[in-house]
Design the sequence.
């Protein structure tokens, strides 16, 4: 499913649509270049889940945890993760069983089953093409 977002608010609205469908254990992989809007999409997810805390990029500590919403949100940023060993050390798999939603920017882990893949591409200015490929359904 491909959509056009013309501003941050549009991206929040798309994230809110995805958030409605989320259940414990779901994993969202966010794809797109630096500044595409991956963290922005995550902010939209958090807001729609009823999380009040402000989502900020976890670049320097890889993962941030947000409680207080309909589901907990675990936000990973693997931009600075170099290899599979380091991913293993992050303990990503443990988060799949913690009753929340795992959101990953710059994923470097290839053992994720049935993720929701969100690809964000800048079309210039504030315009983004956002493609959602829900592998929970399509396999
Ligand atoms: N339509 C839009 N959707 C999302 N973000 C937008 C849009 N238009 C403008 N922006 C702006 O683009 C920027 C996206 O930054 P963001 O941190 O979300 O990117 P990112 O993909 O997480 O980058 P990084 O790979 O560095 O983590 C924000 O400043 C946001 O306000
Ligand atoms: Mg980011």
Sequence:
């Amino acid at each position: 499913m491909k959509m056009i977002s013309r501003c941050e608010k549009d991206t929040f609205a798309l994230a809110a649509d995805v958030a409605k469908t989320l259940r414990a254990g779901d994993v969202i992989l966010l794809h797109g270049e630096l500044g595409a809007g991956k963290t922005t999409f995550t902010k939209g997810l958090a807001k729609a889940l009823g999380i009040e805390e402000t989502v900020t990029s976890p670049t320097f500590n890889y993962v941030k945890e947000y409680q207080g919403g309909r589901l907990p949100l675990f936000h990973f940023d693997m931009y600075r993760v170099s290899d599979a060993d380091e991913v293993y050390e992050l303990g990503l798999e443990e988060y799949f069983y913690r009753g929340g939603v795992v959101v990953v920017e710059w994923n470097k882990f290839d053992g994720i089953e049935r993720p929701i893949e969100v690809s964000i591409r800048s079309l210039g200015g504030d315009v983004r093409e956002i493609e959602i490929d829900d592998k929970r359904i399509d396999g």
Observations:
- The mean pLDDT is 93.
